[in-house]
Amino acid sequence: MLELGHPWIIADEYTKKWPAGAMGELVEIVDSAGRFSGTALLEPGERLIARLLSREPMTLNRSWLMERLTAALRLRKEHAELGDTDAFRLVNGEGDGLPGITVDRYGDYLMVQLYSEGWRPHLAPLTQALQELLTPRGIYEKTRPQNTRNLETAADTKKYGRLLVGSAAPQRLTVRENGLNYLVELERGLNTGLFLDQRVNRRDLILRVKGKNVLNLFAYTGAFSVAAAAGGANSVTSVDVSPTYMEWAKENFGANRLNPKAHEFIIGDCKKSVGDLLDRDKKYEIILMDPPSFSTTAKNRFTTKGGTSDLLAETLPLLRPGGLFIASSNHQKVDVAEYLKELRRGALQAKCDLRVITLAGQSADFPYSVTFPEGRYLKYAICVKA
Fold this sequence. Notes:
By secondary structure, the chain is an alpha/beta fold. It folds into three domains: 8-54; 62-173, 2-Layer Sandwich (Transcription Regulator spoIIAA); 195-385, Rossmann fold. It is 24% helix and 29% strand. The chain contains eight helices and 20 strands. It has helices spanning 62-79, 123-134, 199-206, 223-230, 243-254, 270-279, 304-315, 336-349, and strands spanning 8-10, 26-30, 36-42, 48-54, 87-92, 101-106, 109-114, 138-142, 161-166, 173-177, 180-184, 213-217, 235-240, 264-267, 284-289, 294-296, 301-303, 319-329, 354-360, 379-385. The strands form five sheets. A seven-stranded mixed beta sheet has the order 14-13-12-15-18-20-19, with helices on both faces. A five-stranded mixed beta sheet has the order 5-6-7-8-9. The chain has a four-stranded antiparallel beta sheet with strand order 1-4-3-2, with no helix packed on it. A hairpin with a 5-residue loop joins strand 2 and strand 3 (36-42). Helix 1 (62-79) crosses helix 2 (123-134) and helix 3 packs parallel to helix 4. The chain is globular.
């Protein structure tokens, strides 16, 4: 894997022979002939036992961190098209040569997430480098518990975020994206309420919706719904199982002076809600389906594999001929080819011709290396119902 440019070293029979090391220790990787292969961050006892930081000998110090962070900032400035946007990803782990960490900007605040405990001993110098480069009002760390797929789908109010340095953000912080306002939470919940990797796709939606009726399934806090309403959609119907998220979505509408009473918010399981909408003879010109990889309610369990095709087949009758079905998934273990097969199965079940006109991914602030296919995780397919 290293010879192919991949930054991960998976624990196996060879790594069992490694000398004992400490969490977060820098180690030199050599091949069977003793030739130097790179410098890696060690995470003993984990399946992903080391992450390659450099193909050269190095020291993980302030100077090295500043160099990598500066390069990441430069990439955003030159390529990310961040006009009237202050919520975006600053560091995308492996895609920015800092495997195992992400850093997001939310207005005047930063959010750090460690996907490797090997970074824990280096969190303080990382935080100091971010302060020096960006002078944020505060820096938070968001921790993620294991087995998140087994947590309730309703909004989780536990505090997974903690303030590392600086002053605390308000519980609901207003940020800007594509000229629109969104409310995020940096302390409570597994996620902040806004998935930054869909920024460009929301901007694209704004240009497609004028005068049309839009259905947004798995609406979460309504970011796509706000974009549709702001773009001049005739009506926007948002569906999510969580009452908390639906109230949050209405607040996002209000934050943009959009009247939520002019649109429909349905609290319920998406599968059942689709059936109810069919019973009401509803029709839409645009349908968006952006589910989590796994979603469990009292009556239904959604998974990307299999669930996508079934829900697509049941939903397509709601879409007018010539309308757009937008299907999105962030499931890392389902690649583009597999995802298109799910869409094919759904279209065949519905006896419908579905034609892909755009196949997009994450925004430019989520770069990935060509040697790290796992980094290309987001699938966003815009399809026409023939």
